[in-house]
Amino acid sequence: PPGAQQWVPPQPRDIAELKAAAAGCRGCELFQDATQTVFGRGAEDARIVFVGEQPGDVEDQHGLPFVGPAGRLLREAVDDAGIDPAQLYITNAVKHFRFEMRGKRRIHQTPGPTHITACRPWLVAEFSRLQPELVVLLGATAAKALLGPSFRVTRSRGRLMPWPASAQHPEDFPVAEIQALATIHPSAVLRADNRDAAYRGLVDDLKVAATV
Ligand code: SF4
Question: Which of 55, 91, 143, 165 would be 182's cystine partner, CB 3.0–4.6 Å?
Answer without folding.
Answer: 143
